[in-house]
Automatic annotation (TrEMBL):
NCBIfam families: galE. It catalyses: UDP-alpha-D-glucose = UDP-alpha-D-galactose. InterPro entries: Epimerase_deHydtase, NAD(P)-bd_dom_sf, UDP_G4E. Belongs to the NAD(P)-dependent epimerase/dehydratase family. Pathway: Carbohydrate metabolism; galactose metabolism. Its EC number is 5.1.3.2. Residues 2-169 form the NAD-dependent epimerase/dehydratase domain. The lineage of its organism: Bacteria, Pseudomonadati, Pseudomonadota, Alphaproteobacteria, Acetobacterales. The keyword Transport does not apply. This is UDP-glucose 4-epimerase. Pfam families: Epimerase.
Protein backbone atom coordinates (compact mmCIF):
# COMPACT_ATOMS: atom_id res chain seq x y z
CA UNK A 1 0.00 0.00 0.00
CA UNK A 2 3.01 2.31 0.46
CA UNK A 3 4.24 1.84 -3.10
CA UNK A 4 1.31 0.80 -5.33
CA UNK A 5 2.97 1.62 -8.65
CA UNK A 6 5.82 -0.77 -7.86
CA UNK A 7 3.47 -3.77 -7.76
CA UNK A 8 1.41 -2.61 -10.71
CA UNK A 9 4.53 -2.06 -12.80
CA UNK A 10 6.48 -5.17 -11.77
CA UNK A 11 3.56 -7.58 -11.93
CA UNK A 12 1.29 -6.26 -14.65
CA UNK A 13 3.66 -4.70 -17.19
CA UNK A 14 6.28 -7.44 -17.06
CA UNK A 15 3.60 -10.14 -17.26
CA UNK A 16 2.03 -8.39 -20.25
CA UNK A 17 5.40 -8.41 -22.01
CA UNK A 18 5.90 -12.08 -21.12
CA UNK A 19 2.49 -13.18 -22.39
CA UNK A 20 2.99 -11.25 -25.63
CA UNK A 21 6.35 -12.97 -26.09
CA UNK A 22 4.73 -16.36 -25.42
CA UNK A 23 2.20 -15.67 -28.17
CA UNK A 24 4.92 -14.55 -30.58
CA UNK A 25 7.00 -17.67 -29.85
CA UNK A 26 3.93 -19.91 -30.23
CA UNK A 27 3.90 -21.12 -26.64
CA UNK A 28 0.68 -23.09 -26.17
CA UNK A 29 0.27 -23.25 -22.38
CA UNK A 30 1.06 -21.12 -19.35
CA UNK A 31 0.47 -21.71 -15.64
CA UNK A 32 0.03 -18.48 -13.72
CA UNK A 33 0.59 -18.01 -9.99
CA UNK A 34 -2.37 -15.85 -9.08
CA UNK A 35 -3.51 -15.02 -5.56
CA UNK A 36 -6.37 -14.97 -3.09
CA UNK A 37 -5.59 -11.28 -2.63
CA UNK A 38 -7.90 -10.51 -5.53
CA UNK A 39 -10.75 -11.46 -3.19
CA UNK A 40 -9.51 -8.95 -0.64
CA UNK A 41 -12.41 -6.51 -0.75
CA UNK A 42 -15.48 -6.41 1.47
CA UNK A 43 -16.08 -9.29 3.87
CA UNK A 44 -18.04 -12.24 2.51
CA UNK A 45 -19.00 -15.73 3.51
CA UNK A 46 -16.28 -18.36 3.34
CA UNK A 47 -14.91 -20.61 2.01
CA UNK A 48 -14.41 -18.60 -1.18
CA UNK A 49 -15.19 -20.24 -4.55
CA UNK A 50 -13.73 -19.19 -7.90
CA UNK A 51 -17.06 -17.53 -8.74
CA UNK A 52 -16.85 -15.08 -5.83
CA UNK A 53 -16.65 -11.41 -6.87
CA UNK A 54 -13.09 -10.22 -7.42
CA UNK A 55 -12.61 -6.99 -5.48
CA UNK A 56 -8.91 -6.58 -4.68
CA UNK A 57 -8.15 -4.65 -1.54
CA UNK A 58 -4.55 -3.91 -2.51
CA UNK A 59 -2.50 -2.95 -5.58
CA UNK A 60 -0.85 -6.38 -5.37
CA UNK A 61 -4.20 -8.15 -5.73
CA UNK A 62 -5.24 -5.71 -8.44
CA UNK A 63 -2.10 -6.45 -10.45
CA UNK A 64 -2.78 -10.18 -10.35
CA UNK A 65 -6.36 -9.67 -11.50
CA UNK A 66 -5.12 -7.54 -14.40
CA UNK A 67 -2.80 -10.38 -15.45
CA UNK A 68 -5.70 -12.83 -15.35
CA UNK A 69 -7.51 -10.55 -17.81
CA UNK A 70 -4.44 -10.46 -20.06
CA UNK A 71 -4.48 -14.26 -20.11
CA UNK A 72 -8.21 -14.27 -20.86
CA UNK A 73 -7.65 -12.21 -24.01
CA UNK A 74 -4.53 -14.18 -24.96
CA UNK A 75 -6.75 -17.27 -25.00
CA UNK A 76 -9.73 -15.60 -26.71
CA UNK A 77 -7.63 -14.08 -29.50
CA UNK A 78 -4.60 -16.35 -29.86
CA UNK A 79 -5.57 -19.65 -28.21
CA UNK A 80 -2.92 -19.46 -25.48
CA UNK A 81 -4.34 -21.80 -22.84
CA UNK A 82 -3.73 -20.89 -19.22
CA UNK A 83 -4.29 -22.17 -15.71
CA UNK A 84 -4.82 -19.33 -13.24
CA UNK A 85 -4.06 -20.83 -9.84
CA UNK A 86 -5.27 -18.62 -7.05
CA UNK A 87 -3.01 -19.45 -4.13
CA UNK A 88 -4.10 -18.80 -0.63
CA UNK A 89 -1.16 -18.78 1.85
CA UNK A 90 1.64 -20.99 0.52
CA UNK A 91 3.69 -22.29 3.44
CA UNK A 92 5.98 -25.03 4.69
CA UNK A 93 9.07 -26.57 3.12
CA UNK A 94 10.01 -29.67 1.17
CA UNK A 95 9.71 -32.61 3.62
CA UNK A 96 13.05 -33.99 2.37
CA UNK A 97 14.80 -30.69 3.12
CA UNK A 98 15.69 -29.89 -0.49
CA UNK A 99 13.95 -26.51 -0.59
CA UNK A 100 12.39 -23.95 1.72
CA UNK A 101 11.65 -20.27 2.17
CA UNK A 102 14.56 -17.86 1.79
CA UNK A 103 13.22 -14.35 1.32
CA UNK A 104 15.26 -11.15 1.80
CA UNK A 105 13.55 -9.55 3.60
CA UNK A 106 11.26 -12.26 4.97
CA UNK A 107 7.60 -11.20 5.12
CA UNK A 108 5.68 -14.45 5.62
CA UNK A 109 4.14 -15.15 9.01
CA UNK A 110 5.24 -18.75 9.63
CA UNK A 111 9.00 -18.28 9.04
CA UNK A 112 8.91 -14.98 10.92
CA UNK A 113 7.21 -16.70 13.86
CA UNK A 114 9.71 -19.56 13.78
CA UNK A 115 12.65 -17.14 13.72
CA UNK A 116 11.20 -15.31 16.72
CA UNK A 117 10.89 -18.64 18.57
CA UNK A 118 14.50 -19.53 17.68
CA UNK A 119 15.74 -16.14 18.91
CA UNK A 120 16.89 -15.14 15.44
CA UNK A 121 14.82 -11.97 15.33
CA UNK A 122 13.12 -9.54 17.72
CA UNK A 123 9.61 -10.12 19.00
CA UNK A 124 7.07 -10.85 16.27
CA UNK A 125 4.70 -8.01 15.39
CA UNK A 126 1.08 -9.13 15.14
CA UNK A 127 -0.68 -6.68 12.86
CA UNK A 128 -4.21 -6.30 14.18
CA UNK A 129 -5.82 -7.98 17.19
CA UNK A 130 -9.28 -6.43 16.83
CA UNK A 131 -10.61 -8.11 13.67
CA UNK A 132 -14.11 -9.67 13.74
CA UNK A 133 -12.69 -13.20 14.08
CA UNK A 134 -12.71 -15.81 16.85
CA UNK A 135 -9.62 -14.39 18.56
CA UNK A 136 -9.30 -10.93 16.98
CA UNK A 137 -6.43 -11.79 14.62
CA UNK A 138 -6.58 -12.38 10.86
CA UNK A 139 -7.53 -15.84 9.60
CA UNK A 140 -5.80 -17.38 6.60
CA UNK A 141 -5.85 -20.67 4.70
CA UNK A 142 -2.36 -22.23 4.66
CA UNK A 143 -1.46 -24.59 1.81
CA UNK A 144 1.73 -26.67 1.92
CA UNK A 145 4.10 -26.12 -1.01
CA UNK A 146 4.17 -29.84 -1.82
CA UNK A 147 0.39 -29.86 -2.18
CA UNK A 148 0.69 -26.68 -4.24
CA UNK A 149 3.21 -28.34 -6.57
CA UNK A 150 0.89 -31.31 -7.01
CA UNK A 151 -1.94 -28.93 -7.95
CA UNK A 152 0.28 -27.33 -10.62
CA UNK A 153 0.99 -30.67 -12.26
CA UNK A 154 -2.67 -31.64 -12.22
CA UNK A 155 -3.75 -28.23 -13.59
CA UNK A 156 -1.28 -28.49 -16.45
CA UNK A 157 -3.05 -31.62 -17.61
CA UNK A 158 -6.34 -29.70 -17.79
CA UNK A 159 -5.38 -27.04 -20.32
CA UNK A 160 -4.84 -28.90 -23.57
CA UNK A 161 -8.09 -27.54 -24.98
CA UNK A 162 -9.32 -24.90 -22.52
CA UNK A 163 -8.18 -22.47 -19.87
CA UNK A 164 -9.03 -23.04 -16.21
CA UNK A 165 -9.09 -21.10 -12.95
CA UNK A 166 -8.73 -22.87 -9.60
CA UNK A 167 -8.57 -21.77 -5.98
CA UNK A 168 -5.91 -23.72 -4.08
CA UNK A 169 -6.12 -24.02 -0.31
CA UNK A 170 -6.87 -26.49 2.46
CA UNK A 171 -10.29 -25.05 3.12
CA UNK A 172 -9.34 -24.57 6.78
CA UNK A 173 -8.65 -21.21 8.31
CA UNK A 174 -6.09 -20.57 11.04
CA UNK A 175 -5.69 -17.28 12.86
CA UNK A 176 -2.39 -15.49 13.38
CA UNK A 177 -2.56 -16.33 17.07
CA UNK A 178 -3.14 -19.98 16.19
CA UNK A 179 0.00 -19.89 14.05
CA UNK A 180 1.93 -18.69 17.10
CA UNK A 181 0.43 -21.51 19.18
CA UNK A 182 1.33 -24.08 16.51
CA UNK A 183 4.96 -22.92 16.36
CA UNK A 184 5.14 -23.12 20.15
CA UNK A 185 3.75 -26.68 20.14
CA UNK A 186 6.00 -27.93 17.36
CA UNK A 187 9.20 -26.20 18.48
CA UNK A 188 8.74 -26.48 22.24
CA UNK A 189 9.71 -22.81 22.52
CA UNK A 190 7.83 -19.66 23.43
CA UNK A 191 7.24 -17.11 20.70
CA UNK A 192 7.81 -13.52 21.82
CA UNK A 193 5.28 -11.26 20.15
CA UNK A 194 3.67 -7.85 20.49
CA UNK A 195 0.50 -6.32 19.12
CA UNK A 196 0.78 -3.77 16.31
CA UNK A 197 -1.82 -1.73 14.39
CA UNK A 198 -3.64 -3.27 11.45
CA UNK A 199 -1.99 -3.09 8.05
CA UNK A 200 -4.01 -1.30 5.42
CA UNK A 201 -5.37 -3.70 2.81
CA UNK A 202 -5.43 -6.81 5.05
CA UNK A 203 -8.80 -8.60 4.94
CA UNK A 204 -9.82 -10.32 8.16
CA UNK A 205 -10.66 -13.71 6.64
CA UNK A 206 -9.47 -15.62 3.54
CA UNK A 207 -10.32 -19.33 3.30
CA UNK A 208 -10.42 -21.26 0.01
CA UNK A 209 -13.10 -23.42 -1.50
CA UNK A 210 -11.02 -25.85 -3.59
CA UNK A 211 -13.97 -28.02 -4.57
CA UNK A 212 -13.54 -27.36 -8.29
CA UNK A 213 -9.88 -28.38 -8.25
CA UNK A 214 -10.70 -31.53 -6.28
CA UNK A 215 -13.58 -32.51 -8.54
CA UNK A 216 -11.81 -31.80 -11.83
CA UNK A 217 -8.38 -33.25 -11.03
CA UNK A 218 -8.74 -35.57 -8.01
CA UNK A 219 -6.37 -33.35 -6.01
CA UNK A 220 -6.33 -33.79 -2.24
CA UNK A 221 -3.97 -32.01 0.17
CA UNK A 222 -1.63 -34.33 2.06
CA UNK A 223 -0.48 -31.72 4.59
CA UNK A 224 -3.84 -30.72 6.00
CA UNK A 225 -2.98 -29.63 9.54
CA UNK A 226 -1.15 -26.46 10.47
CA UNK A 227 1.23 -28.38 12.76
CA UNK A 228 2.42 -30.56 9.85
CA UNK A 229 3.05 -27.49 7.72
CA UNK A 230 4.90 -25.75 10.55
CA UNK A 231 6.99 -28.84 11.27
CA UNK A 232 8.47 -28.87 7.76
CA UNK A 233 9.10 -25.13 7.88
CA UNK A 234 10.80 -25.41 11.30
CA UNK A 235 13.08 -28.21 10.10
CA UNK A 236 14.16 -26.08 7.13
CA UNK A 237 14.85 -23.01 9.29
CA UNK A 238 16.87 -25.07 11.78
CA UNK A 239 19.01 -26.81 9.15
CA UNK A 240 19.33 -23.75 6.88
CA UNK A 241 19.71 -20.77 9.24
CA UNK A 242 21.04 -18.65 6.37
CA UNK A 243 18.67 -20.04 3.77
CA UNK A 244 20.33 -21.36 0.64
CA UNK A 245 23.52 -19.68 1.76
CA UNK A 246 23.79 -22.37 4.44
Amino acid sequence: MRDPFHYLRQNYLTALNLVQSCVEQQVKKIVFSSTAALFGGPERSTPIPETAPTQPGSPYGESKLMIERVLYWADAVYGLRSACLRYFNAAGADPLGRAGEDHRPETHLIPLTIDAALGRRPALKLFGTDYPTRDGSCIRDYIHVTDLADAHIRALGQIDNRSVTYNIGNGQGYSNLEVIESVERVSGRKVPWEAAPRREGDPSLLVADSTTLRNKTGWEPKFETLDRIVETALRWRETHPDGYGS
